[in-house]
Amino acid sequence: KVRAGLDQAIARGLAYAPYADLIWCETAKPDLDEARRFAEAIKKEYPDQLLSYNCSPSFNWKKNLDDATIAKFQRELSAMGYKHQFITLAGI
Fold first, then answer.
1. How many CB atoms lie within 10 A of CB 74?
2. Strand (E) positions, 15-65?
3. Does pTM surpass 0.90?
4. Residue 24, exposed/middle/buried by CB under 10 A (0-12, 13-18, 19+)?
5. CB 73: neighbour CB atoms within 10 A?
6. Residue 66 clears pLDDT 60, i.e. is over it
7. Cβ neighbours, 10 Å, residue 89
8. Whole-number Å distance between alpha carbons of 57 and 53
């Protein structure tokens, strides 16, 4: 049985890292703790691996984070090693 979640995502990221230009972390909501756990696990084995994070406009940012955390969210991601951060815009 497949157990979806962060541990599976980390295992998959570690398996693909030797072959991938970047590893993309996708979360259900904006979550710095999940992003940190993912980045630390990947960077421990592959310190030069490029990481990507989707700062989705479909996230309910205000429901999940306070204003101070929203303001520093992308800087925090960058400090963890997420050098490719993107925002998808549907319908453009």
1. 14
2. 22-25, 50-54
3. no
4. middle
5. 19
6. yes
7. 7
8. 12
